[in-house]
Amino acid sequence: MFPKGSRLVVVVLIVIGVIAWSSLFVVKETEQVVVTQLGRPVGEPITQAGLHFKLPLIQKANFFEKRVLKWDGNPNQIPTKDKKYIWVDSTARWRIKDPLLFLMRVGNVPTALSRLDGIIDAVVRDHVSNNFLEELVRSEGWEDAKAKLLEAGVQEFQLLLESVEGTETGETLFAPVIKGREKITREMVADASRLVPEFGIELLDIRIKRINYVDSVQEKVFERMVSERKRIAAQYRSEGEGERAAILGEMERELAKISSEAFRTSQEIRGRADATATQIYANTFGRDPEFYQFYRSLEFYQGFNNPRSTFVLSSDADLFRYLGSIQGNTRGASGQRPASEP
Amino acid sequence: MKRLKGRFSLPSLGRGPFWGLALLVVAALIGFTSYYTVQPEETAVVLRFGKFVRTAGAGLHFKIPFGVEDVTKVITGRVLQREYGYRTVSPGVRTRFAEKGYEEESRMLSGDLNVIDIQWTVQYMIKNPVDYLFQLHDVEGTLDDISESVMRRIVGNRFADEVLTIGRASIADLAGREIQEIMDTYRTGLQIVVVKLQNANPPDAVKAAFNEVNEARQEKERMINEAQQVYNERIPRARGQARQMITQAEGYALQRVNRAEGDVTRFASILEEYRKAPDVTRRRMYLESMPQFIEKVDRIIVLDESGPGVLPLLNLGSGGLAGWSAGEDTGAAAGRPAEEK
């Protein structure tokens, strides 16, 4: 068994251990600490990680998050300046800048988040209601979007452009951005930042995570999109029909041109040839027209070829004259009357 | 309790062995808590009393036990991934995706206030494990928020037509850079490897109409092609026919002129001879050609101008031999050759 003295030593050691344990505390890299003595803050907040001391029993270490924290808003249904109802889901980043003040005003992160709810929600609501939907959606550089699409030659976009040109829709569609999304969110941050320092909080950023139409509006938007596309489709179809008609018309014209030109040319050629031939005949036959007549008549007789024809001759035709008497008649072939009877 | 006490005070055990056992236990505890191993894809971050002291790479390492040094391992070697607007259900060669139920993430407004569904992926690595652990609470959650916010900003600054067609690559690229910038300002320690758009579609309710536009465009092309086909079928043929017409005419012209020249040459030759002896030649030519002619006709009727009229001599309706008649006083023999036919 232990002697009485040694038992006392063990007790003393345990007590010292407990005191030492309660006077040392570890601060992690992700934490910062405010030490309070009987409820009253003592000294500067500890932001350095490592092993730290405090008075046991009467001093208490209050731990706070040192990292940047997230705030996530509830999606809110908010009307914009142009009375379009939209869901806005925003998010923010913040951190505990002054843990002492934070301890005094809010105490812990969940309470802080609920305070931020009130502040950020209100700020977001104000700014959304003060701006047009286009301004919330678009941001700097929107003006380039049109040029880029035109340059790329997206056909549907060109059709869209033609259809809205000069209309009110067209004006809002290509209106330059006045503020734009970044500037509006920067304004939100600036506004909200003025309200949070009294909580010991620093607001780093507010972002619009999602913007969407409320369901009933979305239906209408879908209908609009459908009608827009249908219009484009109709245009394509009628363009196709138009092009087809144009091509076929062009073809008809071309056909008429080709065949008529060919006819003209061929007639010209024939005509020229006929003229040449006529000239040739005239030149030569003109040397003795009487003999030519005779010669042609004989050629006709020689060339005549119709085995079923009946030929009527006058009895004073040259033929009979030659047959009848030796004396010829140079009167010519005028007495002959060729005729054919089918 | 009494029995337990009794057991510890067993005289056979004595004091020595008890302390020995205790020391052994303590030594074992020290042994087991003073080393750690790090896998190849990990980086270990070592904290001493909560304060960051060092990082350690893959392998076996030692640390001060009893919670003095604490080790957190961060996967720094892997490319990690977040998905938006869809989730991978089971990865594999043919990965299955779930798309239903994530419309809230994928649905966004374009600059012309149309609604588009976009699914995208962000691949990232933890570049700086110290920043990753100590700068920001819930780094992944922040990445999600920033990713959604950035993607919506970019899409909101473009026309739906651009997002759905030519803009995909540039949108992904820009989103990657912008997310990286914001991650850097928050010192999240993340490095964005790549942002990829998976699907960029109009919402289901509108999809059919978008497809209709595509179909209409195809239809337009088809109509043009068909018309062009008819054109191509008929125009070259017509051109060929036109050429044919012209060459025929040219042929005719050649023939006409050549024949004329031939005729004329022949006539000229005959004329030359005829002039030497006109009467004889004329008679000869006449007599030469008549028999040939008579051979070629069915019959010849000879009318005597001083005789009766035509009608009595015509023997209509009868062919052949019976049809032959001639004036009595002239040589009926002239008709003979014809009669023989």
Automatic annotation (TrEMBL), chain A:
Keyword Membrane attributed: yes
Keywords: Hydrolase, Membrane, Protease, Transmembrane, Transmembrane helix
Broad class of the protein's primary localization: membrane
Pfam families associated with the record: Band_7
InterPro entries assigned to the protein according to its UniProt record, in alphabetical order: Band_7 (IPR001107), Band_7/SPFH_dom_sf (IPR036013), Hemocyanin/hexamerin (IPR013788), HflC (IPR010200)
Domain Band: 22-221
Single GO biological process annotation from the record: proteolysis
Protein's recorded name: Protein HflC
Organism: Desulfoglaeba alkanexedens ALDC
Encoding gene, per UniProt annotation: hflC
